[in-house]
Structure prediction request, 740 residues.
Amino acid sequence: MKKRTTLILLMISFIGIAQQSIDQKVNALLKQMTLEEKIGQLNQYTGNNQATGPITINLNKETEIKQGLIGSMLNVLGTQYTRQYQELAMQSRLKIPLLFGQDVIHGYKTTFPIPLAEAASWDLDAMELSARIAATEAAASGIHWTFAPMVDIARDPRWGRVMEGAGEDTYLGSRIAAARVKGFQGKLGDVNSVMACVKHFAAYGAAVGGRDYNSVDLSERMLWETYLPPFKAALDAGAATFMNSFNDLNGIPATGNKYLQRDILKGKWNFQGFVVSDWGSIGEMVNHGYVKDNKEAALAAITAGSDMDMESNAYRYHLAELVKENKVPIALINDAVKRILRKKFELGLFDDPYKYCNPEREQAALNNPEHRKAAREVAAKSIVLLKNDNAILPLSKSIKTIAFIGPLVKEHKQNMGFWAVELPDLDYDKQVVSQWEGLQNKVSKNTQLLYAKGCETTGDTKEGFAEAVAVANQADVVVLSVGESWNMSGEAKSRSNIHLPGVQEELIKVIQATGKPVVVLINAGRPLIFNDTADTVPAILYTWWLGTEAGNAIADVLFGDYNPSGKLPMSFPREEGQIPIYYNHFNTGRPAPNDTATNYVSAYTDLKNSPRFPFGYGLSYTTFEYSDLKLSQNKIKSNETIEVSVTITNSGKIAGEEVVQLYLRDKVGSVVRPIIELKDFQKLKLNAGESKTIQFHIDKEKLSFYNAALHWITEPGDFDLMIGSSSADIRLRDSFELTN
Prediction:
């Protein structure tokens, strides 16, 4: 025991020495730097995004790199080109290496499902693996830093960037934020890891009207309780960097918001990494009307705590002057520079500036077949079964004739979704498995596949309807693939109308009228509205945008090689008039007792309150029974824990996975509490007929909330505990009391 203690103390000592060594190196380098060189480290430029052909570097950028006036580049893809830029940096006086950043959001060459789709898997290990593989490929291509994950809570599906996050729930979003940070970063400095960048700090997902870049007006309590926790979870997971959001928060642009950056992030949370602006967000404070010009923007941003300027040129051209005018203390510059240099040392770039520039490793990583295998598995886990009347699914592989109809059936690139890394030399027809190819790969040689496009995703042309009906009439079953185009969801893709676009729902109607069994695949980057389809079509799979292996994953689910297990991370509205819609709302003083009550209660007179599909919802090809809910005690003190156990049984005929969700309700509080809140979940796989008893733990943290004074507290009182398959499908209930 004594030897073990000594060893632990030695290890702690060595860790301290290593960290001190980096700090000493940072301080020694800082002393050698001129003011201009310091400011250069705070400056990030875009490259030319080339991956083939001879590199062309802007002469001004080349000169500035050689002078040590640029600290970071983005949009430089491939080791050949990152090395050429790095060689320029090695010609600078102090030879400070460049950082290379890139939007690696859901994969690099191997594209995984969009983040919102991955969130539907509720599989934290799968999401961490997805980020790990993305990091491995990106790092092998010379990238040090990804601008991900996006952890903005989003309750408005009109906002296009919902596709980039984890949905509407703070608890689920926080767990996913941590998993993705761990996946991207691994052990920082390892050649298979990249720095994560948590974005967008903060509250970007609450943009008024769901309109991208719009203002955010939030109470402090809503900010702390709903929107900040995923950022804190990412920080606790070791996130290296944060990114400013574009929005103003309660009248102050986030990039110039001292309360967010210095008081919360670097102060209360003691964040030791650095903050980068979003693209041009420092300069955009002029448009906000917060500052009059780029010089004032630079002053506001550096004072507030934004360390690196992405593409505004505000720091590059104005910080030195502001320092000389005594408007910006040199201590602020030094702090920002030290934060950036520390990360460069931690990455090992000073030891070997070219450690990420290995062409052999690049080729091996980008062509690793295990990556595609993982992408297929994660994609299948992300699919949500919304409806399966009469058990139409899974289909038989020996079915005689299948009509595969729709505008997305034979598409390749569409399956990548928004924010896929567009490598210029990538042949999407070869890289991406189309849905048509996926079915071809799956069915027996005796099955005939028929095809008709039917219509486009947008527009009002119905010229293809007749052909589609004729093809459907020849088939034993019809599979329809409809949805958005890949670029209808994403940054700057807000939509006021989120119904299934174009005439696609009319196409579904005419095919449904043939009387053939119909399965609809809906491909999208957000929750869509498709009421007629939801009412009439017997089987619906929400397939999002699934990436490189989309076709194979969809076929795996259609034919039962994978039993769908996805659960919705966002509520699906019935109409846009319900938005924002989310499950964990307050009760109000006049709650509607049901979906039909309208008389002097909090309800619509022309629409149900409930969503079309609720948060946490998703079906399986099997069924699950919940039983034997037990609490270790029904009265606890704040320093005690309740052990909760519940038995889950696969009562169907095939193996399947269930996401068991635990919800709480604090019945009375000094500030009103939501009617239901997710506080834990477990995903488990059970064979047909198998039962398993699982445990949850209810402790002080799960019972705490921010009071009116923004103190994180518990209050004595009664709590309802609910276990279920979704927020609207509660199977078992109990209650307990928290005492002083």
In short: Confidence is low (pLDDT under 50) at residues 6-18, 50-54. The CA atoms of residues 389 and 538 lie 5 Å apart. The longest helix spans residues 2-32. The radius of gyration is 27 Å.
